[in-house]
Amino acid sequence: MTASTAPEAVSTTSDATADRRRVSTGAVGENRPRLSLRRRRARRRYLIKSVALWLLAVLFILPFVWMLSSSLKQNLAVFAIPMQWLPHPVEWLNYAEVWLNGSPSMAVFFSNSITVSLLGVVGDLTTSAMAGYAFARLSFAGRDKVFLLYLATAIVPNQLLLVPRFMFFQQVGLYNTLWALILPGIFTVFGTFLMRQTFLSLPAEYGEAARIDGAGEWRVFTRVYLPQAKATLAALGIISFVGSWNDYESPLIMLSDKELFTVPLGLTRFVDADGGLSAGYAMAGSVSSVIPIMIIFLLFQRHFIAALASSGLK
């Protein structure tokens, strides 16, 4: 009796196992077309997005390509119809004229812009980091009210402050000096707000642990919190540098000596009194002015993207 039931049990078990395998195999077979269909759709969407992004990239880069091509053309060939993307003949002398000739030359404008931009960046990073830490981690009477008042000054357009600044710098003897461009850029509402949000996102326990170990407030700021804000500092430095480098209105109001002109204002020397434009020279100067910004961004783009991702800026 036992010997006869054992084979029957084994056969029943094997049949059940075979049935489950067939069912599972059938289910997998049915899911395969669905998976392949989903993959094809995902690949199609990815391809469409890639083509659209490449078209947008080409669209945005075309003006720069035209500027680069025009910088190697003769003045009359810049506005030739139909447009010639490849310069013929190539006028390398445009860059030599811009950088070596003229009174002053582009080298002087670059020197002034680098001085203003770098000093402005150092000052902006210093004051923004200190003010942002104070508003985020220090407790004092009226802290939030003072911060709201400080933040409200961002509503005032910068153009409305040009005349008061002009009068102030003229009275203190800083008119027609580079300090008239450097000092206003040292204190920025945006930088303070950005650094405050960064310090608020960091755990307060770090500072408390350092204070328990005997660290003072300055040591907590410089050794605990500031190293963790490197990405934000890099992003703020790029934004500050680009804003100072491209500023045209402030030098136009604050400077009268051509030897102190920055790059944006110095490019106007290629326009004569009658409005005529030396297009080849102007494009060569414009291409030269873009190179420092590209270098700065390429060097710090990793920190810039990390700061945008961590701070939630869009």
UniProtKB/TrEMBL annotation:
Transmembrane segments: 46-66, 114-135, 147-168, 174-195, 229-246, 279-300
Annotated signal sequence range: none
InterPro entries, per the entry: MetI-like, MetI-like_sf
CC terms in the record's Gene Ontology section: plasma membrane
Compositionally biased region (Polar residues): 1-16
Keyword annotations of the record: Cell membrane, Membrane, Transmembrane, Transmembrane helix, Transport
Compartments where found: Cell membrane
Domain ABC transmembrane type-1, chain residue ranges per copy: 110-300
Membrane topology, record value: Multi-pass membrane protein
Pfam families, per the entry: BPD_transp_1
GO biological process, alphabetically ordered: transmembrane transport
PROSITE patterns, per database record: ABC_TM1 (PS50928)
Region (Disordered): 1-27
Family, similarity comment: Belongs to the binding-protein-dependent transport system permease family.
Name of protein: Carbohydrate ABC transporter membrane protein 2, CUT1 family
